Amino acid sequence: MTDSNQTITDERLSAYLDGMIDEAEARALEAELENDPAAGRRVAEMARNDRALRHHFQAAARRPVPGAISDMLEPAHRPEKGSWFSGLAERLTSWGTVPPPLQAVGAVAVLAVVGIGVLAMLGPGTVFNGSVGETSLVRALPSTNPGVSRFLDAQPSGEVLSLDDSARAVVDMSFEHADGRYCRQYRVALSDAPSAIAAIACRSGSDWQEVLMQRIDGAVGESGMFHAASGQASSLLDGYIVDNADGDIIVGESEAELIKRNWSRP
Amino acid sequence: MNLAEEELKQAISEHLEALRRFSAALTGNPADGDDLAQGTVERLLEKSVPRDATFAAWMYRVCRNLWIDQVRKNARMTTPGQDDLERRMENLDGERAVMTMMRMDEIETAMQKLEVDQREVLALVAIEECSYREAAEILEIPIGTVMSRVARARKRLLELS
Q: Which domain holds residue B85?
């Protein structure tokens, strides 16, 4: 289609793409496009450009939230300075570019019990009946719950896994760690609890290891997506990703291929 | 009556991904987009949002107005020099396949080459998937103007891709 065409204008094609013309007009335009292959290619190119734009800027928006933004959205009821939580949080954020030290296990072992309880619900035939607790926490344990490993092995990012209507889990993103491991950020929420768990696990050998875990305030929406109650949702995790990720997040076909290869390198 | 602070923070958090997407589309790249998103969050927290307003529309409007201020302060943003995209255009084969999609590295440059009024309407309609009426309300222009601008923006993108 060219501008010399008097009937199929770019404005009509554009409005057609946006669903801004009525049904009869849309059918009439489609009939005209049948007889004008150039215009058909043009509208197809417009549609593909739109899709490329959405894909590109959606990926940009899913990068880790900058600390300057998440800090502004911190809840008013932050833990008191000097509490065990703030000490832990400071330690987490000061890890910088090195992986979480395994010796941190000792300091957080008590907290890990809470995490294990939450994660246990992903195992077959298990029921989670505890509360998430008051803590934000980290752990670096030898391996994850087997149910979590299966979930991380196979679940594409953004697809919610529902468990008997009692809990939902979703992988937020996949990325490659600077040390060469594949890592995934995910969340688990109980339907009847005001909190959820956000965590990062990295592939180590044939298993996944959680390297960071954090309680977040939020709820499970009707769509199955998580709605964080505040911007503090995963600021610690975001900081870890910013400091340790190598390259862009892994999305779409690249992630599907990794899942197909069971997270092994080609 | 405005939203209380905690309500406001919650609303921003729920719309943060859309804000960052819109900001990146307006500025043409994720880094500048996050700067714009940060400024928008600051402004929203400072001025709050009327309780009876549609939050997303209000947020887009604040973001867009901040960006326009930046554009006016920085003429560089609207008059980029010779760049990779133009070199590619000069090398384009006239027989190129018409169904090729823009490469990812061309997208940001292409968005930056659009006129300001085309970029903002394309970001709202093609990326945020607002209706023409919603875009018209956010930009405070007639629906017919939205229609013509988004068509011109798409035409320009075809020329650039």
A: 5-160
Could you report the per-residue pLDDT of A131-188, keeping only the tens digit for each?
A: 223 233 333 334 456 667 778 888 888 777 776 566 677 788 888 888 888 999 887 7
* Alpha carbons A191 and A142: distance in angstroms, whole number: 29
Q: How far apart are CA B24 and CA B97, in angstroms?
A: 29
- C-alpha A1 chain-centroid distance: 41
pTM exceeding 0.90: no
d(CA A107, CA A130): 22
Chain B residues 53-92 with CB within 8 Å of chain A: none
d(CA A240, CA A95): 8
CA distance A119 to B40: 37
3-state secondary structure of A216: strand
Q: Answer for the pair B55, B15: CB distance below 8 angstroms, yes or no.
A: yes
pLDDT single digits (tens) B140-157: 999 999 999 999 999 999
Query: Degrees (nearest 5) of the Cα angle B148, B151, B156?
Result: 125
Q: Which residues of A touch B9 (CB under 8 A)?
A: 73, 75, 230-231
In the Cβ-directed half-sphere of B18, how many Cα atoms lie within 13 Å? 18
Q: Is B78 exposed, middle or buried (0-12, 13-18, 19+ CB in 10 A)?
A: middle
List, in order, residues 6 or more apart from A92 with CB less than 8 Å away: A100, A138, A212, A236, A239, A240
Residues of A in contact with B157 (CB under 8 A): 46, 49
Is B157 touching A (CB cutoff 8 A)?
yes
Q: List, in order, residues 6 or more apart from A145 with CB less than 8 Å away.
A: A116, A119, A120, A122, A123
E strand or H helix at A163:
strand A161-163
Which helix (H) or strand (E) segment holds residue B31: the answer is helix B30-47
- Give the residue among A57, A68, A59 at the shortest CA–CA distance from A252: A59
Candidates B3, B23, B55; CA nearest to B123 is B23
Using the beta-carbon criterion (under 8 Å), do B147 and A15 form an inter-chain contact?
Answer: yes
Output the domain CATH number for residue B76. Answer: 1.20.140.160
